[in-house]
Amino acid sequence: MCGIVGYIGRKDAKDILLHGLEKLEYRGYDSAGIYVQNKAHEGYLFKEKGRIAALREKVDASVEATAGIGHTRWATHGAPSVRNAHPHQSFSERFTIVHNGVIENYQEVKDAYLGDIDLKSDTDTEIIVQLIAWFVEEEDLAPIDAFKKAIVALEGSYAIALMDSENPDVIFAAKNKSPLLLGKGDGFNVICSDAMAMIKETDQFVELMDKEVATVTRESLVIENYSGDIIDRNAYTAEIDSDDLEKGTYPYYMLKEIDEQPAVMRKLLLKYQDENGKLTVDQEIVDTMLESDRIYIIAAGTSYHAGLVGKQLIESMTHIPTEVHVSSEFGYHTPLLSEKPFFIFISQSGETADSRQVLVKTNALGHPSLTVTNVSGSTLSRESNFTLLLNAGPEIAVASTKAYTAQIAVLAILSEVVGISKGLIKKGTMLHDIGIVANAMQAIVDDKEKIEELAADYLSISRNAFYIGRGMDYHVALEAALKLKEISYIQTEGFAAGELKHGTIALIEEGTPVIALVTEKGVAGHTRGNLQETQARGAHTMVISMDGLNRPGDQIVIPHVNPLLSALVSVIPTQLLSYYCSLHRGNDVDKPRNLAKSVTVE
Ligand code: AGP
Fold first, then answer.
1. Which ligand 1 atom is nearest residue 398's CA?
2. What is the pTM of this model?
């Protein structure tokens, strides 16, 4: 979703900003812009619809400036266009702003202060910059005071960077709910939505917290709260290997990230092993889980699908009843909670606004929480009691792959450690079993040509498709369907195999692809029967089965693994089918239309 960068130093600001915006491309956007200004108070604004590459072409290479702000916009208010792209300027062009988030009371603010003037854009953002200019001009406030007064009037979510052409030596920033980091350098400082954007310049970052304002100059970073109290906060070192951010020889990040999964499994086993070679998790997390009478997993999208698998792992290994909820529903339609709930938030980015609104509520109720995330220092990680990291390395493709399997593996490790502590498991097997999973994943990614052919055969012209399965296979069917629809734009449904005949089978036509997942012994025959029912009605059927349950003619047979972990392996061919289908259709695999990687609005 929208990304912000800012730089104030001695180097060419426009190059640093453009590079930073390229590193934020993965978040999803539809337009972008930068504003730079020099010490002679000359400001230059460049905006373009579409990709950063188009913006780069528009930027005048002869402009010299050592401070500026930039933005990638994912449209919320107003269509994607140059007119609505950020940065936005006040009427006098003195103030320039970039904003990430949604201002919920923008109409009320406009009516209260700006009357019926015609704004230059259709965005909620422009109101902020016009309001700041209004406070400076009408109430004679200093820019920092006008900035503070304006943001106090705002309701909603925001990360903001502001520049004043009459004071080119400072960038102001503020945040509420949307993420914003300040980066420290020698003779320069930066602002960014994500450390990845500025890791080339510095690895020292300071988090800006909700309802704080920062004054950023070349030499200093000053943070204060809305009451004016100065806040002293240490920088942390962002552990991002800039090589991890490159595609290398891969055509797309998604393929690289699919291929990385065996290595991620092995790395996780190392990270969660103690000095005696046993899997281990922070004892406080284990104790808190053991004290709870019910676990509530909260997540969105792919992370929600990982949660469905997680529920099965947790319940079978710990015997603690577990519910899984879509975060955007849970916060506003909260079910009756048990007496001692324990919340697990699953989020690759750790920034998903839908999940965060639930965490804010559960924190207010005093319930303990754990975040399972790929991003240390992310908002969900900071605001929950405990964090378990995925250690999957940056996931750049919008379609989540390695984070999904890492989330399930972390939940499997956690479940086994808790199960052992509770005396339910005598001797853990997950260390060995996840090692076997890594080998099985490797065998599939090494044989991907076969899956490319199947994608061409089954999915090249279809307009709709189905994945079906039962139990664990049903959970994977949901994830497989999401993956296919989000990057191929084929309308795909993941279905409980037995439920098809209760209505949805009406959609099966001659040639409709139906892909069955068959990895669970007890229901394998039933799922095959349901697949037959679709075949009898003309479906073009495919089977992904597990070794031992396979039958002649199955298109994909995955190696045998512990059935509790089958999702980790059966999902890999479905990821590859989606990848090749999207590739064959000529889509931008890593940046599917309308989507954002980090969804920071509700
Ligand atoms: C999946 O491919 C998507 N990128 C999306 O469903 C994603 O899983 C969802 O938006 C949740 O994101 P999070 O894991 O960062 O919270």
1. 4
2. 0.80
